[in-house]
What we know:
By secondary structure, chain A is mainly beta. Helix content of chain A is about 0%, strand content about 55%. In chain A, the strands form two sheets. In chain A, strands 2, 4, 5, 6, 9, 10 and 11 form a seven-stranded mixed β-sheet that branches. In chain A, strands 1-3-8-7 form a four-stranded antiparallel β-sheet, with no helix packed on it. In chain A, about 35% of the residues are buried. Helices cover about 0% and strands about 45% of the residues of chain B. Chain B is mainly β. The mean pLDDT of chain B is about 90. In chain B, strand 5 and strand 6 form a beta hairpin. The chains are: A mainly beta, B mainly beta. Chains A and B meet through strand 4, strand 5, strand 9 and strand 10 of A and strand 4 and strand 8 of B.
Amino acid sequence: KAGVTQTPRYLIKTRGQQVTLSCSPISGHRSVSWYQQTPGQGLQFLFEYFSETQRNKGNFPGRFSGRQFSNSRSEMNVSTLELGDSALYLCASSFTGGANYGYTFGSGTRLTVV
Amino acid sequence: DAKTTQPPSMDCAEGRAANLPCNHSTISGNEYVYWYRQIHSQGPQYIIHGLKNNETNEMASLIITEDRKSSTLILPHATLRDTAVYYCIVSPTNNAGNMLTFGGGTRLMVKP
């Protein structure tokens, strides 16, 4: 079966712009979560969506937002980009969001802010 | 903050067993131990998880001490493709928010 698909794979944006990243989970998975990975901070949880509802949110400013559609696909948006937002953004899907099922990660979107 | 402590790096000879330790001395009774790995430029990959019994699958074995304060991930016959960062994570079984707290992990280098 198809894995978790993230688009685009690479993105270059200018400071102050906004960006939208997309994640298509594994078919049948209803939970999608997002992570930011930087060399300095490692992997950090952004937020999680299940059945179009945000259930959990990490410690990120309000410039970071997301949503989930009825087909479980999810998007995250970052407004007013800063240089520090340059990172690998990963999404993970799971059946229910419970840890026991294991999370499947996509290959990520590498965002560079210049 | 991550609830686990792992050595930052380890080396292993190709074909030998790789034993990756993890300390989780503050683990709660309802928390599982999970292992993921991340190969360069890819997303983390689930390896195995366990509560208190030892577990084995096609990728690895997980040995959890009786007091559950530490565990070891064993790759029985390491290959060059096992070179990656390995993350040990503790998470409750009812973690409906789908949040994994990653620490620094162990960078495993498998050498020919």
